[in-house]
Each structure stands twice: as C-alpha cells, then as structure tokens.
Write a structure and sequence with these properties.
The protein is α/β, with parallel strands linked by helices.
C-alpha cells in the first residue's frame, strides 16, 4: 500500500479523498485538525523541518495544494518543503498552480506555451513555485488552475450584499472549474504517465464573462439583478483583490487537458455546476 500525500489538506482535498484508488491511501497534511483522509497529520510545512524529513514514505505521490505565504514574490513555503522533504521517496509531485501566471491577455486564447507575465505578487509567487518544481529534479505535473467553485464556495456574500456588477457588454472573460472536476483531474494525474513533466491548463473548457457567472447564480436562486457599473466605478468600489481579478482576462486553451483526460469534465455548463453547488 503506497501513499498519496495531500499537502495543504483543505477544500479541494475534501473531494480528492472521496475518490478511492486501489492500493493507495490518502495522507492529509496541514496545520489544522482534519479527519477527511485515511491518515491525517497536523504539521506546519513552513516550519516543522524535523517532521518534514520523516514525512514521506517510499514510492509516494505528493499532491501539493498549499498556498504560498501572503507577501513577496518567492514561495517560501514550497521552498522549505522541497529543501527538507526526502525527495528520493517522491515518485511524482502534482502541483496546483494558477492561470494567473499568464497575466492579462485581454481575452486572448492562451495555451501552455504562452508567455507568463504575472501582474500581482500573488501570481508572481506561483511563477516562482512552478520554477522550483521544474528545477527540483522530481517527476512533476503542473496544473494551471482558474477560479474554483463548488458547494460553499459560491460568491453568496457579494450576492447578498448586492455588489454591483460590471456591465455585461464591457465585461471581460474568466475561466472556472468545479471542485469535483478538479479533484478528478488531480487523481487522474496520479497514473497518467502522459501527464509527467507537463504543464496543463485546466478548466471546464467554457470561458464565461464574470458578470454572466453572477447572473446565473441570481437566476437560480430567484433574486433580482443588482446595479450594473463600468470599470471606473468598479475601481472605486471593489477591493484591490477583486479589482485584480476583473482587470485581467484570458481564455484558457484546454485542448491538452482534453487530449490527456477525455470526458473527465462533468460540469462543462457552469449553470449545471451551480445547481450542484446549491443542492442541500
């Protein structure tokens, strides 16, 4: 029985751990107490170096989901993990990056060979993390992940507050993926040798205007639409993090994902994904 370590055992891991793999056990690793995996370990990967050295058993898979620290342009958390963990025992590392590494492509379709031009420090930390993974000497798959939505992760607070939306005709595109689809993709990378040493864009395959995403939620919960505004008004109203999301746009080319993992995406229509999220 070999191990799959879910490092950064959080929201996505809750769904990964529900997908059983023959002769594999899930080991959840995070700073808090959790009981979602076969084995759950409370450990701070940014500081508990002695425990890190003893963490990974032979022939293991690491799914690295831990976010970087909140400042700077270098992912110091991943750096500490790679420095102290026993790499000889890692058969493969699957790293969840972000599509934010591409920066603002002004609604252009981007594949994995597109230049990376991160704008925010948050995205720059992910670029650094990708570089660390590629130079680690480990067998890897890097997934460039867009906005994740799922049960308990819809923007209900903004909807309850009736936060104004960008006018639909000027709104830029975003990319999304349902957490259940992301979990299936991550698990599929465990045994798919064609994904080794690869960077893969992942999404539901259908770019959507951010405003349309919100309007679908309003429609499905039966609430009237909020006010619509332009980008100038949004710059005064939205917080900096929200502004960074609406000011960047790109359309992810997911042909490689579909070639490697055909028919793996269940929620191609975001409206069906939202319905799934709203189930009791």
């Amino acid at each position: 029985m070999s191990m799959i370590y879910l490092v950064g055992n959080g929201y996505v891991s809750d769904y990964i751990s529900q997908i059983k793999i023959e002769n594999k056990k899930y080991v959840g690793v995070c700073r808090s107490e959790k009981k979602n995996c076969d084995i759950n370990i409370k450990l701070d990967i940014s500081a508990d170096n002695k425990k890190l050295k003893e963490l990974i058993t032979e022939n293991s898979i690491v799914v690295y989901l831990a976010p970087p620290q909140q400042n700077g342009c270098i992912d110091l958390v991943l750096k500490n993990f790679l420095l102290n963990v026993n790499k000889k025992n890692i058969q493969k590392i699957i790293y969840t990056s972000t599509s934010g590494v591409y920066g603002d492509k002004k609604d252009k379709v981007v594949n994995e060979s597109e230049s990376i031009e991160p704008i925010t420090d948050r995205a720059k930390r992910r670029v650094d993390a990708e570089s660390q993974i590629k130079s680690s000497g480990l067998n890897y798959t890097i997934l460039r992940v867009p906005g994740i939505y799922g049960k308990g992760r819809l923007p209900m607070k903004r909807i309850e507050e009736r936060l104004p939306l960008i006018k639909r005709d000027i709104c830029k595109h975003t990319n999304l993926i349902h957490v259940k689809d992301l979990a299936r993709l991550i698990v599929a990378c465990v045994h798919n040798k064609a994904s080794d040493m690869s960077i893969i864009n992942v999404s539901d395959g259908t770019a959507i205007k951010t405003t349309d995403y919100y309007l679908h939620i309003y429609d499905l919960i039966g609430q009237p639409y909020p006010e619509f505004i332009d980008y100038e008004d949004a710059s005064k109203l939205y917080d900096k993090k929200r502004q960074s999301f609406i000011n960047e746009s790109r359309i992810l080319d997911t042909r490689l994902m579909l070639e490697l993992f055909p028919n793996i995406v269940e929620f191609k229509d975001v409206r069906e994904g939202i319905k799934d999220c709203l189930k009791c």
